[in-house]
Amino acid sequence: MTGPGYLAVDSGGSGLRVVVGAGGRGPLARAASGEPVRTGARGIDPDDLLEQLLPMARALCAEAGVGRLDTAVVGAAGMASLGGALRAELPASLIRELGVRRVALAADAVTAYVGALGPRPGAVIAAGTGLIAIGTDLTRWRRADGWGHLLGDCGGGAWIGRAGMEAALRAHDGREGGSARLLASAEDMFGPAAGLPGRLYPRADRPAVLASFAPRVGECAAGGDPVAVAVLRAAARHMADSAAAVCPAEGEPAVGVTGGLFRMGADLTGLVDEELSKRLPRARRITAEGDPLHGAVRIAEDLIIGSFTLPGDAALLSLTAPEGDDAARAADALT
Amino acid sequence: MTGPGYLAVDSGGSGLRVVVGAGGRGPLARAASGEPVRTGARGIDPDDLLEQLLPMARALCAEAGVGRLDTAVVGAAGMASLGGALRAELPASLIRELGVRRVALAADAVTAYVGALGPRPGAVIAAGTGLIAIGTDLTRWRRADGWGHLLGDCGGGAWIGRAGMEAALRAHDGREGGSARLLASAEDMFGPAAGLPGRLYPRADRPAVLASFAPRVGECAAGGDPVAVAVLRAAARHMADSAAAVCPAEGEPAVGVTGGLFRMGADLTGLVDEELSKRLPRARRITAEGDPLHGAVRIAEDLIIGSFTLPGDAALLSLTAPEGDDAARAADALT
């Protein structure tokens, strides 16, 4: 028997990724837009998101043979700080245009959490260009860092790349703490050191440029460069700091890592494991189950079967559902 | 007896500062433009600089009763990396428009050095929003750092302010290494922490915004906040690293500090003294004689009396003078 249909969405820096599935049968069809949703004066633009999403959702329903969508879950990067217009307009639009009964809007940190750990208490470190830690004891959410490349994101891709470039230029200047290996790698990637400022500062995507050097720091560390190893260890400590700040104090919480930064290699992952075991000895280190899109799917499926147990949060996770609906229990849990 | 007249210029972030003086009598008249020279696709714009400078120079000559200018010295921020068009055009323009015989173009790091220490061997740390160290053994110049707020400028105003804001947000998140006092100070200055990214990242003058928090870090340190003290000590260590990289290895070099950052207070200066005495025990710590404009004046006076002994450098210090001129000795020293 097939349960009600659902739509699960992950909106991030590389565009929309969309799944249509059915309760009990899991994902049935997938698509990706490749175009990031526009952010304007009102934050994430709900019209632009809808313009991309509606045709994708209808095509996927046809492809999957799903006649009616019951539930939509949209996870989006920037939801917490730039999601005001989305929260104000998207649920009604999706109910009107797609006939869904329930809409959940989630910050990408929440979908990353659920994708990695599922609906159990713990903490997740989500690291790509930036870094944020999110945790829950199933009564409320806590966040740490995620402040961007100048104010924090300590231990993330831009942080590691920046620290590596600084060490490269220390070697160039003859200052202490430099690494000739990182300097050679930076000049191989970006050209002569003297031209580095001119190639970095005029760009709008400075954090991405810095993060693009993080894998080189990983390579130098894997090759035994002590300065590069120290950069990775400092990053791992920062990650453990953030995880410890959001991890539930009681019980035996699960701790996981997720995000593109961990594709960098075994050295970083090993150092993070070491630092986590020092800082959170009572936590169980869990390998992430899936990515943020998987988290959105998981939330949709749990809403449909009425087993949704995650806490709501004005900025991080909000549900729109009809009163007296099957989802009442979930809706109660969310507000 | 009055020697030949000279023009000395300091071009920086707050505009042009200009002195007209005469050999043996020192500065006779001063003015400031208050408008920074434009930087365009060709780097520092020589036409914009001339348009500001020529009327100021003529008015100051009239005020000072200097009939003829013999020598012009222009020190400019950005000369090393963005001074190509200045070096190509400014000397001929000043010779043609003002009738000078000699033109010296200097990076602001060089005028800062000469302003602080005069023409003797040593090292100078110049710190404002950014940070650069410059040193000479009187045969060549060496520089360290000055790479900008993402790649270095370690220990400068933006660096200290950024580290202070990071510590404030650590306290906000409940991460290790935070300071509730820095958090209170940051929220007093910029408003609630949650709004900080939105107030910083969209601005073009991010380094200046970060640096504007450095005096608050100084205040918290003066009040005994251990995290703020640690930020200042780390800054002082970075400064000592940079000074050590450029300081002559032989003799008993002079070491000085200069720039707006040191108006922050006695704590920073004291920590820098401590770190310098550890890293450069053979150097004599000298109180800066004057600022970069004083350095430009000093270079002009030394050129006029033929006692100029500083080494030339394609990017840092270049002289244009007629062959066989009194300044031949200086010109030889410069190339």
Describe the structure.
Two copies of one chain form a homodimer. The first copy, chain A, is α/β, with parallel strands linked by helices and 335 residues long. The first copy, chain A, is globular and about 70 Å long. Chain A has helices at residues 46-64, 79-82, 84-98, 108-117, 157-173, 180-190, 196-200, 206-211, 214-222, 226-246, 266-279, 292-304, 328-334; strands at 5-12, 15-22, 26-32, 39-40, 43-44, 69-76, 102-107, 122-127, 131-136, 141-145, 254-258, 284-285, 317-320. Chain A has two domains: 5-118 and 290-334, ATPase, nucleotide binding domain (Nucleotidyltransferase, domain 5, 2-Layer Sandwich), CATH 3.30.420.40; 122-285, ATPase, nucleotide binding domain (Nucleotidyltransferase, domain 5), CATH 3.30.420. Residues 328-335 of chain A have low confidence and may be disordered. In chain A, the strands form three sheets. In chain A, strands 3-2-1-6-7-13 form a six-stranded mixed β-sheet, with helices on both faces. In chain A, strands 10-9-8-11-12 form a five-stranded mixed β-sheet, sandwiched between helices. The first copy, chain A, has a two-stranded antiparallel ribbon with strand order 4-5. In chain A, strand 11, helix 11 and strand 12 form a beta-alpha-beta unit. The interface between A and B is medium-sized, with 33 and 33 residues.
Query: Order of strands across the widest beta sheet of chain A?
Result: 3-2-1-6-7-13
> Which shape of chain A, going by the Cα principal axes?
globular
What is the CATH domain class of the largest domain in chain A? Alpha Beta
Biggest β-sheet of chain A: count, sense, barrel?
6 strands, mixed
User: CATH-wise, what's the superfamily of the largest domain in chain A?
Assistant: ATPase, nucleotide binding domain
Number of domains of chain A: 2
Beta-strand content of chain A: 15-25%
Assign the CATH architecture of the largest domain in chain A.
2-Layer Sandwich
* Succession of helices and strands of chain A: EEEEEHEHHEHEEEHHHHHHEHEHEH
Classification by helices and strands of chain A: alpha/beta
Biggest interface and its residues per chain?
A: A-B, 33 and 33 residues
Distance between the termini of chain A: 32 Å
CATH fold-level assignment of the largest domain in chain A? Nucleotidyltransferase, domain 5
Q: How many β-strand stretches of chain A?
A: 13
Q: Any low-confidence stretches of chain A, pLDDT <50, length ≥5?
A: 328-335
Count of DSSP H/I helices of chain A: 13
